[in-house]
Structures are given as structure tokens and as C-alpha cells.
Amino acid sequence: MRRTDEPLYTISIAARLVRIEKPEEPAIHPQTLRMYERLGLVTPVRVGKNRLYSEKDIERVRQIQRLTQEMGVNLAGVEVILGLLEQMEELQAEVERLRSATD
Predict the structure, then answer these.
(1) Nearest to 77 by CA among 69, 68, 87
(2) SS3 of residue 1 by DSSP
């Protein structure tokens, strides 16, 4: 079983993989991925000059694309939404830990 956070894909491959859900659409431009990185929305692993994206990174970029293109959210809003989703996941994990500790 492969880990979803394992960095595997270069920026050009990652740009193509983002569109897998809608293959009729063109790949996103690698510059878009660089912008998302600059804004802190996605953090690929840097190996020398190369950026390597994981499955988790690809899914996050798809989520960003859905929010911006389908829901009309601007990138500042995306940042807030993603931050809140991460907090929810952390809280849910904490609740599960507390439940298992009390059982």
C-alpha cells in the first residue's frame, strides 16, 4: 500500500494529474502550481531545484480548483476554507483519541 504523502510527481506530471477527474479539460499550467506554493496552499517537497508532489498534494490542488472554478471562491477564501478543514480534521482525530482513551 502506497502512502498518499509520498512525493512522487514532478510539476509537469502533477499539472496533468490534477485534471484526471475531468480528462476533457486541459492540464493546469505549472505556473498555477507555483503560485499555489507561493501562497502556501500546497507544499510540495523540494529535491534540489525540483518540486515533487504527492497524491495528497494532487488531491489538495483538485480541491483548490473545485473551490475556485466551480464555487467561485477567491484564493484568500480558499486559504481560510482549507485552514478550517484542517482544524476540523485535527479536532475529529482528537475526539477519536479521547474516545478510545475513555473506553
Answers:
(1) 68
(2) coil
List all residues 6 or more positions away from 19 whose beta carbon is below 8 Å from its beta carbon.
25, 26, 27, 28
3-state secondary structure labels for all residues of the chain = CCCCCCCCECHHHHHHHHHHHCCCCCCCCHHHHHHHHHCCCCCCEEECCEEEECHHHHHHHHHHHHHHHHCCCCHHHHHHHHHHHHHHHHHHHHHHHHHHHHC
pLDDT tens digits along 25-82: 778 999 999 999 999 999 999 999 999 999 999 999 999 999 999 999 999 999 999 9
**Element (H or E) spanning 81, and its range?**
helix 75-102
Q: What is the pTM of this model?
A: 0.84
